[in-house]
Design a protein that fits this description.
Elements: H1 2-17, E1 20-30, E2 35-43, E3 49-53, E4 59-63, E5 67-72, E6 75-82, E7 85-95, E8 99-105, E9 108-115, E10 118-122, E11 126-131, E12 134-139, H2 142-150, H3 155-160, H4 168-178, E13 183-186, H5 189-195, E14 199-208, E15 223-232, E16 239-252, E17 259-276, E18 280-296, E19 301-320, E20 323-329, E21 342-349
Antiparallel strand pairs: 1-2, 1-5, 2-3, 3-4, 5-6, 6-7, 7-8, 7-13, 8-9, 9-10, 11-12, 14-15, 14-21, 15-16, 16-17, 17-18, 18-19, 19-20, 20-21
């Protein structure tokens, strides 16, 4: 448990320090009217700039103040001056007189209005009110007040703001109405659905395993050949599930004779890309559960074992067109056997 805690804490710390979002095959429109294409990487630790890797492998850092907007798979990120610097905002509605923007912080959506070259925060969600010894949680309605000031030239719309909620659809309706329908971009359901389209891959791999906590370096470690599928929750997602079926033969040395075991195993694992580059990534994985069928060849003895487990590891993958070559270090809880717990294989993007 001690080593598991260390590993999980390290993964958590690493993923937060280099928190990263990747926009593959994006187009960046610059303030000097140049256009550059490539993969864009955004880092929480450096919110004032992006890293662009061009198709020829050249990498450059571009500050937000030099960016007009970024287009990626139907999405638009607009660079606007906000507070003391420039920030990238997800465009929901781009209108002639007013635009609706959004950011996502800790999985919570925050909305903004862009008007006359300025960005205005629409503060919503829940807020805590303390009165004496009592504490209350209530809706934060400040966004309605900000909207009323910004659309005061349209009295009919001002009245409607009293009935809206802090939801994208309600805010979109107000912004489109204020623009009299004259908009240049609307993030439609089709774009959202396209971004959430899952991605399925198939894989083949070889695994060398040392699962015995009292592993002896003189013993033979079992080898497995595995095939299966890997399911990404979306094209840009860092998270995936891997379902595999593997077969291996294990020889357990004995004082009198060797025991031979045939092992067929159905397993499921969780994968998370920690750090992405243009054609490669470093990832973390956890083998979550196994359903194993074991037969002992010398006396026809068989057994079925269902084993929930938390077996962490790390890997590296490299992309060549639709193929990914990967190598992994597995079962890192048993640190003494790490050199003997490894996998390598190939994944094909369908």
């Amino acid at each position: 448990m001690k080593y598991l805690s260390i590993i999980l804490f390290s993964v958590f710390a690493f993923s937060n320090v280099i928190a990263q979002e990747s926009l593959m095959k994006a187009t960046v429109y610059l303030t000097d009217n140049q256009t550059v294409k490539g993969d864009v990487f955004l880092y929480d630790s450096e919110p004032d700039n992006i890293v662009l890797e061009k198709e020829n492998g050249e990498t450059s850092r571009i500050f937000n103040e030099n960016i007009k907007y970024i287009e990626n798979d139907g999405n638009i990120l607009k660079s606007c001056q906000y507070n003391s610097g420039y920030q990238l905002f997800d465009v929901i509605v781009d209108g002639e007189k007013m635009s609706l923007l959004r950011t996502t912080k800790n999985q919570a959506e925050v909305f903004y209005i862009y008007k006359d070259g300025k960005v205005y925060l629409l503060e919503g969600g829940r807020k805590t009110i303390v009165k004496g010894s009592k504490t209350y949680n209530t809706d934060n309605l400040r966004y309605r007040g900000v909207l009323k000031v910004l659309i005061k030239s349209e009295p009919k719309l001002v009245k409607k703001t009293d009935n809206i909620k802090y939801k994208e659809k309600d805010l979109v309706d107000i912004v489109i109405a204020y623009n009299n329908g004259k908009i240049t971009f609307l993030k439609t359901e089709e774009i959202v659905k396209k971004n959430k389209t899952p991605n399925l891959m198939i894989f083949l791999q070889y695994t060398n395993a040392a699962t015995n906590a009292y592993f002896s370096y003189d013993n033979q470690t079992p080898s497995f050949f595995q095939a299966g599928v890997q399911y990404y929750f979306s094209k840009e997602s860092r998270h995936s599930l891997k379902l595999g079926l593997e077969y291996g033969v294990y020889t357990q040395p004995d004082s009198e004779y060797d025991h031979f075991y045939n092992i067929v195993d159905l397993n499921i694992s969780y994968y998370m890309d920690l750090y992405r580059m243009r054609h490669s990534a470093i990832y973390f994985n956890v083998r979550a559960a196994d359903l194993t069928y074991i037969t002992k060849t010398d006396d026809s003895h068989s057994n079925i074992i269902m084993l929930p487990r938390i077996s962490p590891g790390f890997g590296f993958k490299y992309q060549i067109n639709k193929f990914y070559l990967f190598a992994e270090i597995n079962n890192m809880i048993q640190y003494k056997t790490v050199p003997y717990n490894f996998s390598f294989g190939i994944t094909v993007d369908l």
